[in-house]
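Lab notebook, page 48
Experiment: co-folding of the full assembly
Goal: obtain a model of how the components sit together before planning crosslinking
Operator: M.T.
Materials (sequences as entered):
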Amino acid sequence: MSNEHHITPLRTYLIIAGSLLFLTGVTVWVSYIDLGSFNIILAMAVATLKATLVVLFFMHLLWDDKKNLVIFVMSLMFLGIFITFTLLDTGFRGGINPEVKTAIKSKASFYDNLPLTDTHGNPVESHEDHHEGEDDSHH
Amino acid sequence: MSENQNINYLNHPKGIMSWLLTLDHKRIGLMYLFSGIIFFLIGGLLALGMRLELAAPGNDFVSNDTYNSMYTLHGAIMIFLFIIPAIPGALGNILLPLMVGAKDVAFPRLNLASFYIYSFGALFAIYTIVNGGVDTGWTFYTPYSTQSTSNVVPMTLGIFIIGFSSILTGLNFIATVHKMRVPGLTWYKLPLFVWALYGTSLVQITATPVLAITMVLLILERFLGIGIFDPALGGDPVLYQHFFWFYSHPAVYIMILPAFGIISEIIPVHSRKKVWGYKFIAYSTLSIAFIGFLVWGHHMFTSGQSVFSQIVFSFITYFVGIPTGVKIFSWILTMYKGQVSFTTPMIYALAFLFLFTIGGLTGIFLGAVALDIHLHDTYFVVAHFHYVMQGGTIIAFLAGLHHWWPKSFGKMYNQKIASLCALGVFIGFNGTFFPQFLLGLRGMPRRYATYSDQFSELHTYSTFWSTILGLSIFIAILNLMWSLRKSNKLDPGSNPWGALTMEWTHTSSPPHPHNFESDPVFTNGPYDYDKVIVEPTLKK
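Observation: model returned without errors.
Model output:
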């Protein structure tokens, strides 16, 4: 039985806390860059990395009984099932009716209010990317 | 019976506070039981009201709006306030620690807390009823549920709260099964009811948070205008159905798995024979719990879901039939060449085998996309899930109630009346719901307060038999309550049916406040009728 409490050096905590703060900065920074559909992927990747650090070091899962790790990974698996199967729906909606292919806006409304920039963060006059399904109705 | 056996959990300690603040799993189970039965009766009266309205075409009895409220409340109350909490909360609470030889569940205070969380959530449901009901259907589908002016928010808030009670009960049971088993009671010697509760608890813990998230998202969209489900705000209405059924399909197994467990207990005892295929039944429980997570899309074949996912979901749906079939055949083989006695619990269990098989097979029909597109939202679906939920779960609940009633109270009900009611339930149930299969095949849509004349004969027939069904259940419960009166001297002894699980062999009926008078010693497997001779103490 490994019931002993693992004692983490203060140094480790400080390094992890520093990385978390840094990654928060990264999240804020990239939110001002419009990468199209990669916005969400990048934001979620950074958030996942942060959550992993918290769980492994602050919540001691790295040194804990491995059974708890299994349970934790199982919960991620269920989340994966939910998201995968839901995307199987939204990703293939156009199968029969191509004209309703884009049911969901590809970007969060947040981006509508940002000053327009290109992929390097420089201000531009207008967006080039065309939202499928949005303007089609006017023609 | 010796004198000191008069001390039991029902009379010691005394006083109302000793009940309200009890940490005893048996008392908490009884509180769940009685609140569950009250909601069962409310839900049942709503159902009879609907049948009365549907006895003839036209709006003779209630208005369209009232009818919408009635079916919504019937569904929501029956599912969230009765079926989901009733078997794990009531029978599970009373029996699980006794079956594993523990003094209580792993976290007794958490257990009491989960009952109060359930009661708090139930208050919101009662408020909804008093305040004029809710008219969205128990599934609260968007976009209507974000626009309806009825009490969507109090009802969903109530369900959100009750969900936590469900999660805590599941957590408690898992810890109890892992940590509190008496020495010698290994996993493969656990009673199958414990396996069933374990599988149920896993589903409760993993699925219920998604329901909570769904309800929160719905409330957020209504109050803050955050676009999750409304296309005008950038949302997707079908996403709601994904969220909802990701919980609610596994929830179907939260409802039916404990019922399977009850049947797995009752059939060996009343057939005097070792259960056939113990490991098959145990593992089929776990595989149903898992596959149940992969099939939710079969509720959405007409929602505008992509054709690709329809095919995937339809394909996986058939897999659920396999472990379920394994169980049915195992129960039938358990009875084969056994000494089957037609006691009340056994009559219910046999009714279960019949009705659940019909419910399960019609589920296979509905799992086929091509057929479901025709049958979706018709009475065929209504009949199908009533065969599963009532013909399956509620019949199993009644079976379990009659089986463990002498255990819980040390009193025996009038068995003749009980058996007659069981027959009445079986016949009344088929009379009520079989015509609904035919109605659905002929195109009668669900959730309408009226219909065209061609459907009237079958509807009248269904309404007639529903009164027999309602009356039988009412008398059955009255008969049980009647057995509790003081003058009832009939003592069933400690083991009326001659069962071998620990709750019967190691403690008195009703049990001691601390379950066992001394530390129990595990002696025999739960179904060793081939090795151990045990006589029923009930005199015929």
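Interpretation: The interface with chain A takes residues 206, 210, 227, 231, 233-236, 238-239, 242, 246, 293-294, 296-297, 304-309, 312-313 of chain B (CB under 8 Å).
Next step: discuss with group before ordering constructs.
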